[in-house]
Write a structure and sequence with these properties.
The protein has helices at about 5-10, 15-40, 45-75, 80-100, 105-110, 115-125, 135-150, 165-185, 190-215, 225-255, 255-260, 265-275, 285-300. The chain has 13 helices and no strands.
């Protein structure tokens, strides 16, 4: 019996939306932790620019043939493609890293839970797609689970959350990413690697003016092992791998059904804290995880009556 090629062995993964979106959340959870650790060490525009330039250079050798073939379609939809590059690549991530300089990781994880709501709003505005009852219920249940985990089982602690400029900046960032998530369903029918290469490269190019300004306005990041490790991580895992998985997941099941997977980000984040930072698992972790997973399963389930998505 002939052995399957490496490409064939991995091809099944790109037809598994739930696994792809779970991996996306895992990689983005790591991005929040690394971004917070890099705050004050690497200026936010520098971190975003180097991240996307690095991701573009990683993808390009695999994508250039597809990119050349798909260029006529990209050129016909150039405005849309630039809009996706600006919103989901350049602006969202720069605002996220800027916010991480001014707020706590707890607040960031809380506000990430609003991601599905922004996706639902933009899906309605741009595409006329409404949440189903199951999707709305699933989002609510999983959001409660996130709050249970992050507030250590004490939901009354939510009243003690103080908003600061970093929080407001991150809420704006999530609204912009919700726009990207909904708009990405209008992307032209091009290869996934073509889409990544163009949006990564265009996003990095859009950041050049802000990057040059930051070089003159703020101290330059030091070149050391920690900073190089942070840059390498954000270029590979939350960029190339996460966006490849996320874009394919949205393509397979639509933005509204994909959005509840945002709630897995704080689940993975808290699990990382238990595994790597010595935090002791508590009963509220198990209860919160169960609620999040139940909500995601309900919200991401395919509707019995097929709706336009």
């Amino acid at each position: 019996m002939p052995h399957a090629s490496p490409r064939a062995r991995w091809s099944w993964l790109f037809d598994q939306p739930y696994l792809l979106l779970s991996l996306t959340s895992l990689f983005w959870a790591g991005n929040a932790i690394v971004g917070r650790a890099a705050a004050g060490q690497i200026p936010p525009v520098t971190l975003s620019f180097v991240r996307w330039l690095g991701a573009f250079l990683i993808v390009l050798p695999f994508a250039w043939r597809h990119l050349a073939k798909d260029w006529p379609a990209i050129r016909r939809h150039l405005g849309l493609m630039v809009g996706l590059s600006l919103s989901g690549i350049a602006i969202f991530n720069t605002l996220q890293y800027t916010a991480l300089e001014h707020t706590t990781a707890l607040n960031i994880l809380l506000f990430q839970s609003a991601g599905p709501l922004f996706v639902a709003i933009w899906s309605l505005i741009l595409l006329g797609i409404r949440l189903t009852l199951a999707q709305a219920l699933g989002i609510l249940v999983s959001m409660i689970g996130v709050l249970v985990i992050l507030l250590h089982g004490d939901l009354t602690a939510l009243a003690g959350i103080d908003l600061n400029p970093g929080d407001l900046l991150f809420i704006a960032a999530m609204a912009i990413f919700g726009f990207y998530s909904a708009l990405s369903q209008k992307r032209p029918a091009i290869h996934g690697l073509s889409f990544l290469a163009f949006t990564f490269g265009c996003g990095a190019l859009c950041l050049v003016p802000a990057f040059l300004w930051e070089l003159s306005a703020r101290p330059v990041a030091q070149i050391n092992a920690a900073n190089l490790g942070s840059l390498a991580y954000v270029a590979v895992f939350p960029s190339v791998l996460a966006y490849l998985c996320f874009n394919r997941g949205v393509q397979l099941i639509g933005a509204n059904r994909a959005a509840p997977f945002f709630h897995l980000i704080p689940v993975f984040g808290s699990a990382m804290a238990i595994a790597f930072l010595g935090e002791r698992p508590q009963l509220y972790h198990a209860f919160g995880y169960a609620l999040v997973l139940a909500g995601v399963i309900v919200a991401a389930r395919k509707p019995k009556t097929r709706l336009a998505e």
